[in-house]
Write a structure and sequence with these properties.
- By secondary structure, the protein is of the alpha/beta class.
- 40% of the residues lie in helices and 15% in strands.
- It has helices spanning 19-30, 46-57, 70-84, 98-110, 125-133, 152-158, 181-193, 233-236, 251-264, 270-280, 284-307, 333-344, 373-383; strands at residues 33-34, 93-97, 116-121, 137-142, 163-169, 197-201, 227-232, 244-248, 311-312, 320-324, 346-347, 349-350, 364-368.
- Helix 2 (46-57) packs antiparallel against helix 10 (270-280), helix 3 packs parallel to helix 10 and helix 4 packs across helix 9.
- It is globular, with a radius of gyration of 20 Å.
- The protein starts with 18 loop residues before the first helix and ends in a 5-residue tail after the last helix.
- The mean pLDDT is 96.
- It binds pyridoxal-5'-phosphate.
Length: 388
């Protein structure tokens, strides 16, 4: 399974196996509860689903404009003002095929071969692959448990003459961390001092708990001019299969990203773009309800994992929890995750695959809790056997 594929370009050989595919396969084979991959097991709000059906029936089935339908670009700008006070011109919004395409197009557009991209590890696996595809070089700054903070000196040390940009994900997958205002200020300071661009991945923007709020980096002084802000509707509206995302940045920066985007997909998802207008304009009660529901689930699963004997780390955002498996006698999360379906019928993800520093994440695993409460309770019940 680890033999190189003779057809694949060399720089991508190391990116063939997705841990999500491996663990989801294991879940299917064993009938285990899949707390590995992060997709919800319920549908999003019915008015959003109805809007998609209505859009198909109303004939919105041909190529939408390459930058996205004007109504959605306006809705993104309105959303940024409503939640963050950000002043975004709809002309500077680009609709994409999920946040994934906006991330890919940004890196391909902005990074020359040999230039360096600073990421915080553990990182979302797409980042490593897309940086490689662009011919860029990844430089990692390690987030350290239990709170996954980073050392500002590590960030400074990761910057060199070839650094082009910082890629920031907050709220953060896979740790559930939300970058603090001090940390955001440090990132902004470094970006300004070294004249770097920043690409932000904010797909979990509406999932923060414990009274913590998400702050887009673009709201910090001087940062709107050098930040590409990216998000999507998949996580916020329970529609991960629709793949409607967006990015905004100052005019010439988003134009650069769009130059690549138009040659990747050109455009996609006409009826889903319509429905996303309805979604972004939902009332505040939808967004507070979403966070309240997940907050309660986080607490439930956090308690369940602790009762099962794991060392659970704080996770004020996203719908993931991480935990250390050493109290259960494992020192490698990969071994734990391969054993877990057989031992108690649950699937989790080993975080070490998201690190360059293999030691830093070796014994940490991730559980996704974006599932129905009865599914989570059943999973916690099964896990409770581990403590015995
Ligand atoms: C899910 C996810 C994405 C992908 O978003 P899409 O809109 O489905 O493309 C990007 N970044 C992070 C951190 C994610 O968890």
């Amino acid at each position: 399974m680890n033999d190189p594929n003779p057809h694949l370009v060399e720089r991508m050989q190391g990116h063939r196996l997705s841990i999500f595919a491996e663990m989801s396969m294991l879940a299917l084979e064993t009938g285990a509860i899949n707390l590995g991959q992060g997709f919800p097991d319920t549908d999003g709000p019915s008015e959003v689903l109805d809007a998609a059906v209505a859009a198909i029936r109303a004939g919105h089935n041909q190529y939408p404009p390459d930058r996205g339908i004007p109504e959605l670009r306006q809705a993104v700008a309105d959303h940024q003002r409503r939640f963050y006070g950000l002043d975004v011109d709809p002309a500077d919004v680009m609709v994409s095929t999920g946040a994934s395409e906006a991330l890919g197009a940004s890196i391909l557009a902005l990074v020359e071969p040999g230039q360096e991209v600073v990421v915080f590890e553990p990182y979302f696996d797409l980042y490593a692959a897309i940086i490689e595809l662009a011919g860029g070089v990844r430089r990692s700054v390690t987030l350290r448990a239990p709170d996954y903070s980073f050392d500002e000196a590590d960030l400074e040390a990761a910057i060199g003459p070839d650094t082009r940009l910082i890629l920031l994900n907050t709220p953060h997958n896979p740790t559930g961390k939300v970058f603090s205002s001090d940390e955001l200020a440090a990132i902004a300071r470094v970006a300004l001092q070294h004249d770097l661009l920043v690409v932000t991945d904010e797909v979990y923007e509406h999932m923060t708990y414990d009274g913590i709020r998400h702050v887009p980096l673009a709201t910090l002084p001087g940062m709107a001019d050098r930040t590409v802000t990216i998000s999507s509707g998949g996580k916020s509206f329970g529609t991960t299969g629709w793949k409607v995302g967006w990015a905004h940045a100052k005019s010439d920066l988003i134009q650069a990203v769009h130059t690549i985007k138009q040659h990747l997909t050109f455009t996609s998802g006409a009826p889903f773009q319509r429905a996303m207008v309805t979604a972004l304009n939902l009332g505040d009660d939808y967004f507070t309800g979403l966070a309240a529901d997940l907050w309660a689930k986080r607490d439930r699963v956090s308690a369940g994992l602790a009762a099962a004997g794991l060392d659970v780390y704080p996770a004020p955002g996203t719908y993931y929890l991480t935990a250390d498996v050493r109290p259960l006698g494992y020192d490698d999360g990969m071994d734990f995750c391969r054993d877990l379906p057989g031992r108690c019928g649950v699937v989790a993800i080993p975080n070490r695959v998201f690190y360059d520093d293999q030691q830093a994440g070796r014994s940490i695993v991730r559980f996704a809790y974006c599932k129905r409460i009865e599914v989570l309770d059943e999973a916690m019940d099964r896990l409770s056997g581990l403590a015995a």
